[in-house]
Amino acid sequence: MGRTLPSYRRMLEKERFLWEKHFASRLREPHRTSFTTLWEKAFQLADAASANTRPLVYDNIVMSMLTAQQVEIQRLNRELNRLKELLSSQDMT
Amino acid sequence: MKLHAWLHDIEPAEWGVRLHWLPENNVKPIEVFFPFTAEFYITKADRETQAQLLSHLHIERVDIVPRFRFIHDWKPVDVLQVKVNPNHLQQTYFDLRKHWDEYMHNADLSLYQHFCFQMNLFPYVYAEIEIINNRLQPNWRLLEEYTDREYRTVPFRTLWLQPRFENEHLLRGRLLALSVRRSIVDSEEKPVIFEDADEGTMLEECFRYIRQIDPDIIFTRGGDTFVPILAQHAVQAGVGRIRPGRGPRTLQSYIKRPNTQRGHSYASYGRIYFSQHGIYFDGGRHHYDVGNSFMYKDGNIEGIHELVRLGCSNPQRIARGTIGTTLTAVQMRTAYYQHILIPARKADAENFRPAWSLASDVGGLVFSPDVGLHLNVTEYDFLSMYPNIMVHRNISPETVNCNCCQEEAEPVPLTDHTICVRRPGLVSLALENILTRREYFKSKKKEHQRYDRRQKVLKWLLVTCFDSNTILPIYSKGKLRLVRIGPYIDEIITNTTDFEETAVVGVDENYKTIFNPVEDVVRLPSPPNLFRIQLDTGREFTVTGDHTCFILDRGVLCERSAANLKKGDFLPVLFSMPSIEPWLEFDIISVLLKLLPPSEFDKWRVQGSELIPYIQSKRSEIEAAMKEFHSVGALRTWLKDGFIPLRYFEILGFPLSLWNTLSVGYGRRVGGKIFWIPAYYTLDADLAFFLGYFIGDGSTRQSFIRLSVNAADIDLVNWFDQFLIHRFKLQVSKRKESHTAMFTLQINSTALVWILNHVFEIPRNRMSGKHEVPPMILNGSEEIVLGFLAGLIASDGDIGAERNYVRISSRDHSFIEELAYLAARANLYTIIGKSSPRKGSSMCTLVFSGQDTLERLFDKIYLKKVDRDKIKKRIAIGSGLRKIAYDIPVKESLLLRLTQKVRTSRNPRVSDRTRVPREIALIQLQKIKERSDRLSSNEYRQLGVLERLIESNLGFARVRDIELVPAREKYVYCFSVKNKIHGFIAGTGGILSHNCFGYQGYRNARFGRIEAHEAISAYSRDALTQTQHIVADYNLKVIAGIVDSIWVKQEDDSTPIDDITISQLREQIEQKVRLPVEHAANYHWIVFLPRRHDPAIGVLNRYYGLRKDGTFKVRGIEIRQSSAPLIVKDFQTHVLKFLAKARTQNQFKQQVHRAKKLLIEYKDRLKQVNVPLSELMITIHTSRSPDEYVNKSRQAIAAKQFSNLGVHIEPGMKVDFILIDVNAQDPMKRVKIKQLLRGDERYDAEEYCKLLDRAYENLIPPELEEQPITLELFWN
After folding, report:
1. What count of CB pairs under 8 Å joins A to B?
2. Which residues contact B354 (CB under 8 A, 6 or more apart)?
3. To probe the interface with A, which of B268, B1010, B1276 has the most A CB atoms within 10 Å?
4. Does the ipTM surpass 0.85?
5. pTM of the model
6. Chain B closest CA to A92's CA: distance in Å?
7. Please, is B616 exposed, middle or buried when counting C-beta atoms within 10 Å of its C-beta (0-12, 13-18, 19+)?
């Protein structure tokens, strides 16, 4: 009794391959690095995405990337605020 | 000869079996014959098939028997049971398959299973047996049960046999030696070696020695491979007739037939395995090849023993099989005892469903690990998660998306599947047994290795019976009684009471109620839950889930199991009871003589002027009898006043025909006032009214009766006055209560009190059972029943404000239940209602409704004239007086269909209604008959069916609610009845229900179902998700989770989680997730490794960690891989030893440096090319045959080298080789298989260094080497 559907990770690999072949190969640096990073993020969230089986694997990939981007934005915001506070405290002194 | 022995082996014989028993005290094994036929089942039960089958040479007889055919069946069907000669089991199976392939069941069971299932035995059972003339007598006595967890281990005689050939690796060349050891455990035992002789002599001597020892089991390593080779050698040496077993089979018969005995390859968990064709010895000697026995490696002989007992299978087969073989066998055994047919092949395919729903096919949940080193980690494991989910969530092929449950079916989280809540699944049951056994074993394993578990046989599940408290009418020995089914059947079973003349109320073919004779009674242990079926007129009954009920469908009563009933189904209910001979006259004197103790005989006197001549004529006899008790003078008084103490009444020989002229009285022995009351009564409506009133509002003491009457009902007071004088010749004293508007009527008569208690069987008060329908009322005429109910209503009842119903309420639910049956005796329409419970008790109400019911009842009920007139007017209008349960359901009865066909459904209206009064149905019936020319022949037949239904005395009530209730009693009960319609009336309000088959109901599933698999995965994901939330509540962090394991740590991992939190968390998870959870380990540290090409992403199956007890848990690295060369494993073991010293990140970093140095040392050693070849051997399982390889991979080359040697390599076989020169032009020179090695080969040091580098990186990836702290690459 096996699974009917291929695993999400396998589909993810396949999608990445296709996107690299037909899309990333036309990109120039630094866009290409950004492309690779985005796919890394998709892989990092593959555990959650694989539990959410959908007919179109692309949905999960995009949602993973968006979530990862949001995390990155929040991290940068925190960093920005920290630097702002640091600067203002230096101004005070 | 009687002896105690273990059943060791079962072999076929002509029309029987040869059984090999191992007697205790290790004496010689015994072979006995036992006559036996195996049973096949053919689900085509027609005479033609039966006749054809009987013409087969190896079939003894063919019978028609009821069996459950499909897993979802609740009712057995007739099938053919074919008795087959065990000696030709397989041949008969193949013969029958040609004609009845799709109908065959239980046909591919092994002889072991046929015999054990049919005889209720199991292999290795310890029993007391009797043998006469080499035949086993059927009177064996089991000394241990299948369910026993503790059992004796069999004292096998064992032997270890190992040959040595010239070419050891290829088992080729001359046979050099045969070594035999007695013990398989004692490695120091010196083996007996047969060598330095020609092959024939060696073989003969060796097997002669074996015969002397006479072992029960011969162990070998690789025997499944070498025995056929030994056989070839034996034939060449002219000793092929040596017999290795105890039976007649010779060694030469084991020479392999290449086409049929090749063994087979199979895939499991992504890998190809090869299983060698098994070599089984005969005659009660078994052969276990420990190299071809996964079970032996895991469980030793005791493990095999346990599985053999559980699965009732051939031990030699079990030893070579997988756990799946045993699981299937356990399921089959369970199914057999449930009378469920076992299909020869998988029969239950995946249901058709939209592609979209494949979304639920997801698999287990994982939380990708945070790559890197984590300190102070705790691991929790779900114990045997998938089997436990199956057991705890009741997952089995037949329970997933079942047809029986509607809204109540348990939804599987995040899928469209549902799980049955009504019956336990077969797979979950079989697994439960195994899980229970495992738990027991776990708890005992420290005490002794042999401890094992027995499975819990849950035979009591799914029996088809009623709850113990179900009320039902019983007609026995000319009397009707209302009984509770439980105590009634208990009494029959306990006291072996006769029930030959007992009947229950059933229906005939025309749906008229009749008394249906009882054929048998059934009492079975109760399942944990029962179904309470509530109908819309307050009727209800409680039955087991698979109890068959009748429902009205297409004009006829169809059978449906209780669990499959749906809201809205129409169930037949009782309307009128079959007529009985009323029980009208009561003779007090006979009852007194029968019931009174002789000491009371002097207090009771019989009076009547007709007595005097009889006293005189028998004077001398009376005087003789008086001496002891009375003075002679007393006789004069008796003669004068015409009475005599009861003691002497029988002496008189007073004619029975004149007893109705007598009176009886009770008084003190010494004399005093005696109130005489008549000694003979005819039960009529007035007396019944009095009794009814007394039950409602009366009470008794030792010597008087009191009745309370409303002060407004002065007419009633007068009526009682007149009645008591007229009927009992007793005066009534009336007292007006001072504070309430009540009259109290007091009748002073000890005799009347006694008569009420003993003759009319009305106990004194409610506690002693006053609230019961007196038997003579239940057996009375319609008039009497009406009178009794009127009396009861006059005392305790009330009339609705709208005057459209009359009601009796009581806290005593059983009294109301009895009254409902009583009302049915008089064809009165009733509804049973229950008020909501208040202060711990609830009122139960019996409502009389319907025009004719009320008309007849009001005739008897005491009413003021004004009220009576009003009510009569009201009844005449007839509004609000419908008898719903007496109505005809329009759709289910086919009334609607037929009226639509003849176009009369609108006048009187039938369409758009659920049911119509019977009167309307009758009008419509007439109309349909008038226009019957419009009906087809089929519809004309249906008209007959409808007519029968309308004229029947069954009503129909709709199912309002079905609820699962816990069983209150230990047993459930049922009757088996004689008549054609196998049903009887039972339950509150009287519901027609099917009788018991005595079967238990579900069918084996010897196969899986994808939906079941999806449901299990879904539950496992849900469990892990819930666990993650619980962990978060404890402010802990989940660092990884893989299907059934989860690793957690503190946010600041320098400190470990304290013990209290660990245990609290475990309990919390177990409680919320409802699956057993184990605190698996605490780790000093654990390293989750990244993907090889993607260092930021953790992988789920590669990690290693140091437990607090100093041991390692390692997954997915070379140390665990069988293919890795010894040197690589050795290196990794060394590295782990270094790392084991680390407790902090810095210490870990220091040890990593040491590991690096070690790598260099190992590589240097390799480069010097002086590492022994045995340390460099790579072992790989081939994945295909040599010819199928298209590339030049290492295993392809190795397989090819085997082919060149003339050895056929099957997929899954292991090949060992050394890397010689991986870059060689000639692929055949790149590697060399073990069998070709001379010992002086140079290996490819560079390639082995690469393997070492990779092994190092697999343990300590470059990122970890630089920064051994967790790689916080993502979540900041």
Report:
1. 51
2. none
3. B1276
4. no
5. 0.54
6. 29
7. exposed
